Amino acid sequence: MTEFKTLLKDLVLVESPRWHGERLVFADWGAGEIIAVDLDGKHEIITRIDAMPFCLDRLPDGQMVVVAGEQLLVRSPGGTLSPYAELGALSTNPWNDIVSDGRGNTYVNNIGFDFPDGDFAPGFIALVSPDGKARQVAEGLAFPNGMAITPDNSTLIVAESWGGVLTAYDIAPDGDLSNRRVWADLDGAAPDGICIDAEGVVWFAEVPGRRCVRVAEGGEVLQTIACELGCFACMLGGPDGTTLFVTAAAWPDAMTPGSRTGQILKAEVSVPHAGWPA
Q1: In this predicted structure, what is the pLDDT of residue 19?
Q2: Contact between residue 124 and residue 172 where contact means Cβ atoms under 8 Å apart
Q3: Residues near 75 by Cβ (< 8 Å), separated by ≥ 6?
Q4: Domain for residue 276, yes or no?
Q5: Which of 55, 109, 179, 273 could bridge to 144 as Cys pair (CB 3.0-4.6 Å)?
Q6: What is the edge-to-edge ordering of all strands in the sheet holding 43-48?
Q7: Angle at CA of residue 185, ends 184 and 191, nearest 5°
């Protein structure tokens, strides 16, 4: 039976893991930090962010992009953060997850309401093109969360946490999204962060279920790895692409001031990462 092992602990509220080079880079929302950790647990703070929430990904040239507040920021190789796109004209509600394709298009989703205190309203997905212009390309999502793009740049999959589904779109050459469809009905689960493996299967992390689940298109569950903590996001990486990294924390304790239950967990799986969009 596959089990998680702790790679790093004493964190706050951790999210948005991305494998880059030989390290996992992730966001600690509670500490306002972006941290990189290697497979031995050696870690460093590489950027501080004054926003809540904030998520990150990489452009094709390797530069980090970070959605923070109502801005999309880009981090230069020298470490400087600078504005890349303005998102406030589309919405002042919380911006959430982010994913970039191999053409330099970056997708950012918006929760659609003032979480956690506001009344529910559907969220949407915005596209930021390589010239830094932002436009809405999808709507009507029940708390959009994790997103992933297939390596051929043809399909975007988004987790609807309050809809209990993974939703897919076709990606047009100009970045527009079409042909919305249910990729997998998750039978009441609340998917958060996601990633795709080399068989085209999705891993999703779940906070209330305290687990990570490998699910095929159509909804068949192929593997489940249980956890003692809420699982916020997952990412395949490591030398062979077969290490499943998870950002986890006790929930809702992670929102309590002074709580440091956040951890980076890892488990070895059989199918590697799908590869990055090219």
Answers
A1: 97
A2: no
A3: 47, 63, 64, 65, 66, 81
A4: no
A5: 109
A6: 14-20, 23-28, 33-37, 43-48
A7: 85
Amino acid identity at 84: Y
Asked if residue 275 belongs to a domain, the reply is no
Dist CA 94 CA 30 (whole Å): 16
Asked if 245 and 24 touch (Cβ cutoff 8 Å), the reply is yes
Lookup: tokens for 253: 């304790």
State how far the Cα of 18 lies from the Cα of 59, in Å rounded to an integer: 12
Distance in angstroms (rounded) separating the CA atoms of residues 210 and 220: 19
Contact 17, 25 (CB under 8 A): yes
Instruction: Express each pLDDT in 173-224 by its tens digit.
Output: 999 999 999 999 999 999 999 999 999 999 999 999 999 999 999 999 999 9
**257 beta partners:** none
Number of structural domains (the chain) is 1
Owning domain of residue 135: 5-268
Find the CATH number of the domain harbouring 169. 2.120.10.30
Whether residue 168 contacts residue 157, with contact meaning beta carbons closer than 8 Å, is answered with yes
- Residue 77 predicted with pLDDT over 90: no
For strands 54-58 and 64-68, give the pairing. antiparallel
Long-range CB contacts (within 8 A, 24+) of 44-48: 46/79, 47/75, 47/79, 47/81
Residue 274 counted as domain residue: no
CA distance 124 to 95: 10
SS3 82: strand
At residue 97, does pLDDT exceed 90?
yes
SS3 label, residue 235: strand
Task: Tell me, yes or no, whether 277 lies in a domain.
Answer: no
CA 81, CA 86: separation in Å to the nearest integer?
14
Q: What is the DSSP letter of 32?
A: T
